[in-house]
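Annex B. Sample input.
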Amino acid sequence: LGVAGVTWQGVRLMALKFLTASGGGRTSDAIKALNYAVAMGARLTSNSWGGGGSSSAMRVAIERAESAGMLFVAAAGNEASNNDDVGSYPANYPSSSIISVASTTFAGKLSSFSNYGESMVDVAAPGSDILSSIPHGKYASLSGTSMACPHVSGLAALVWLYRPRLSAHQVKEIILKSAARQ
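Annex B, continued. Sample output.
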């Protein structure tokens, strides 16, 4: 039972749960999870969460993770708004280690719900009608930038699998330069 990822070997996963079953959570718990990932030597975090405003404490935690060489892949948000005009966090923090991910449909078009932005959203990945595992051993078709974010995280893991000496910034550059522009 489960969903197959793109990096089947050479990768270790670390589950860091700080949200409740209903999707609520505290910034302080997100910071603890990120700090734990840094302490355990994680090279990237896949952040399929968002909401609330900007937090200086969260920004500092992301900067600390960046200093440790971590890539922070973040869902761009699902309000169909321009992140250049209205920030969606954590995707909008001013860190060069963040890759902000929008959602596309199966046809490669921006999903109707997806946030976007010329400067604050970096790439887009499939995020509409994604088959996903859900509690009680079941599956459902889900949509959101939270479904798109893991695609980019998986790509980053694949790049590191074949080029393990690259820095987080080099992996981000490869991903951004290889994205199709529309």
